[in-house]
Amino acid sequence: MILEIRLSNFFSIKDEVVLDMQAASIQTKKAKELEENTFVCGDERLLKTVAIYGANASGKSSLIKAIRACVGMIFSSHNYNENTIFAFTPFKFGGIGKPSTFFIRFLLEGIEYEYSFELNKVEILKEALYYYPNGRRSLVFSRDETKGPDKKNIYEFRSVIRRPMDVAANTSKKTLFVSRASQMDRDTAKDVFRYFNERFILNYFGYNSFSVERLLNENKEQFLNVLRIADSDIVKIDSRHENKVFSTAVIDPADNQILSVEDIQKPQLVITTYHRNNPDVPFNFFAEESDGTQRLFNMMLTILDIVKNNKILLIDEIETQLHIKLVEYIIGLFNKSESAQLIYTTHNTYLLNTNKLRKDQIYFVNKRDDGSSDLYSLFDYKDFRDGLDAEKAYLQGRFDAIPYIDEQTDNFLK
Predict the structure, then answer these.
(1) Where does the ATPase AAA-type core domain lie (predicted)?
(2) Which CATH class for the 1-209+308-414 domain?
(3) pLDDT score recorded for residue 414
(4) Which site in 79, 201, 255, 349 is 20 to 30 Å from 148, CA atoms measured?
């Protein structure tokens, strides 16, 4: 589970911003009523959901993009070649030529880890992994490419990873050591890699295509309940695999002529839906249901799996193409989960409700005068008492993070 994420010099983020998933010490009656929005893991009390508000172009998406870019590097950097340019842009008004930094604290099997790296657009500069096996901070490895070129000067290890210099010898400046070490079957690195790969879900589309049938069978009643909330008239869903015939052609590359055609059979998932007004008439889900229903299907299967298995989900603009009541339901699923976590951005101020979210669950992104993004929490406003109308205060500009619009439309129409 995530304790804290720190970022600097990514997209519109210039100076370091901190997204803290640790629950603040709030002793008010309202905070106690919302205690289910938190969970205890080890010695830490953590938040299950965090909402991020801000004006258009304030940097909300930059925060999500930066986290995705960094986690994506953990997934993929062992495949990067010498021509790779990393998929992010440093802050353009003063950040070009300076390093970008990523730091995350997280809990894995009850043990706290700290992982960080520093990079520019073309190479890794620094990287480190620490953990707390006995409650005390201990080094797994650290790396500083500025001390090169000798790998023995660049790296420092303890006894956690076996034959670490073999991994270092195969780790280029394009590659994160933790990614290469996982690929080379080193246990601690594999644990960290699996944490990001299996538990840190960067979006809810495309994640479950390989296991749709299993997830549907495991969550069918909950899924039908979601469809009812979304005002769908689907009352029953069945799934099965059928062998479908596909034709493959062998083509002569010399004259582009077909030499032979072979029919092969492949299993294909078939989903059948039934509707309230005539539950005996079957519909082919992929061919006859609307794009919106199919989108909701894929999204909610992912969310139900994440909530059920206590994973982490990162979503930009959670309300996109969803009714507000369905968004509320999704957030409620996470807040009622055992320890799943949801980080989301939104413009919908209806959700800015301190009767449903603690003050430390609400963050704002505001654009500074130099064009960079600042991140801060409602909890930072000590004079904002429980019971006050957070939506009204936000729209009045009390927390900044809103667009300031010239309402004199006559100026526009001239």
Answers:
(1) 51-353
(2) alpha beta
(3) 56
(4) 79
Amino acid at 34: L
Return all residues near 262 (Cβ < 8 A) that are at least 6 apart: 247, 248, 249, 250
Q: How far apart are the first and last CA of the chain?
A: 55
Q: Where residue 158 falls among pLDDT bands split at 50, 70, 90? A: very high
- pTM for this predicted structure: 0.88
Encode the chain in three state secondary structure.
Answer: CEEEEEEECECCECCCEEEECECCCCCCHHHHHCHHHEEEECCEEEECEEEEEECCCCCHHHHHHHHHHHHHHHHHHHHCCCCCCCCCCCCCCCCCCCCEEEEEEEEECCEEEEEEEEECCCCEEEEEEEECCCCCCEEEEEEEHHHCCCHHHHEEECCCCCCHHHHHHCCCCCCCHHHHHHHCCCHHHHHHHHHHHHHEECCCCCCCHHHHHHHHHHCHHHHHHHHHHCCCCEEEEEEEEEEEEEEEEEEECCCCEEEEEEEEEEEEEEEEEEECCEEEEEEEHHHHCCHHHHHHHHHHHHHHHHHHCCCEEEECCCCCCCCHHHHHHHHHHHHCCCCCEEEEECCCHHHCCCCCCCHHHEEEEEECCCCCEEEEEHHHCCCCCCCCCHHHHHHCCCCCCCCCCCCCHHHHHC
Tokens 């409650």, located at residue: 135
Residue type at 149 in one-letter notation: P
Contact 343/362 with Cβ under 8 angstroms?
Answer: no
